[in-house]
Amino acid sequence: MSEQSKFVLSENNIPKRWYNINADMPVPPNPVLHPATLEPVTPDFLSVLFPMEIIMQEISTDQYIDIPDEVRDVYKLYRPTPLLRAVRLEKALGTPAHIYYKYEGVSPVGSHKPNTAIPQAFYNKAAGTKALTTETGAGQWGSALAFAGSLFDIAVEVYMVKVSYQQKPYRRILMETYGADVYASPTDRTQYGQSLLQENPEHPGSLGIAISEAVEVAATSEGKKKYSLGSVLGHVLTHQSVIGEESLMQMDLAGEYPDVVIGCVGGGSNFAGIAYPFLRHNLKDGKQTRLLAVEPDAAPSLTQGSFAFDYGDTAKMAPVVKMHTLGHSFVPAPIHAGGLRYHGMAPSLCALYDAGYIEAVAVSQLATFEAAVLFARNEGIVPAPESAHAIRAAIDEALDAKQKGDKRVILFNLSGHGHFDLSAYEGYLAGQLKDYKLPKQEVDAALAELPQVSIPA
Questions:
Q1: What's the predicted TM-score (pTM) here?
Q2: Could you identify which of 42, 95, 141, 418 might form a hypothetical disulfide with 384, taking C-beta atoms 3.0 to 4.6 angstroms apart as the criterion?
Q3: CATH number for position 260
Q4: Residue 396 CA, distance from chain mean position
Q5: Is 30 a member of any domain?
Q6: In a domain, 435, yes or no
């Protein structure tokens, strides 16, 4: 009998509370600023975009926030998600390391995103919101919100980055199947989109632009529509903590504890979701687990960006936060990891990285797909290009452990499958993909447009 490789919890083990990092942050928080005045925002400003329950979660310092029964009932469609040990990958690498992965691809839309889409739709429905607006890159977040909107009977408008809209038509079809309206951003539906299309009718779009359009639509709807975000903000990271809370229980079942926890980062939600509960144990219980965030070297917010106040979107309509940023005007290269092409990062994650509590590394597109194919041929799961960044880092950790003769325990978040990304795999297997190294001069040019904030750093 071979050793156990799958660790499954019952529905009774679905967490009853989300973990809120605000309660245990070892560094002081930075204010959130109004995009027009650059003064601290008020609840009145935020209420234009979000229902009050979401705002209260955003500013809460409670260590745990109760998960509503209605949300846990929907979570039962796919949670708890399995934890697996990648035994075949270990053998292929010849490593003494033990590699575990938390597989969020079992959700109805194939990623971790419903963990926050479901509560956001629930709270908006309870507050009387008529429709939700949002952006999406690769389409995973848009799919999740469309799915959640269908469950709570609330309309959803998705502004999808144009290059992803063109690369991933099946994501659009999935969103439309759930009842959402999907638009290739920049669009002619908003003043900001119209201005960009006048300058460049073939504009490829960016997450920052798509955010601007979704925010504009919500802000001008006279309260009928609210904005919903799939990453970056604190309440989103809090909702994602179900990943890490389940992982802690499952690592107990495996009889091991990770030496390193890995996740890909674009805005930071899936990384924080698995890493923050382990960070709690580092801070409170003296554990020394390394927490490694992995980003594309075509959009290296953490490893090359500046830790500064910046707008969350390109049109300067979203709140200004202190984060590692490449500049709100940054337009990324058309890499296939569309969900990681954001110019900034979650403020809490950035503060922790700046203070040394989190590590970060940037990896190339070709090396990422190489890792994804190796994983698929050994473990059977074709990962999303975003998730493959975590796989690349996990493999590199395992090879480092092999070189050092170190029986390292590695845990990574496999945050979604790549069934809708097969055109990207087709390009890789045909030798058509290439690496995009972000030139320093592009970063410098975008950073020159950062807002001038007088609040002390």
A1: 0.94
A2: 418
A3: 3.40.50.1100
A4: 22
A5: no
A6: yes
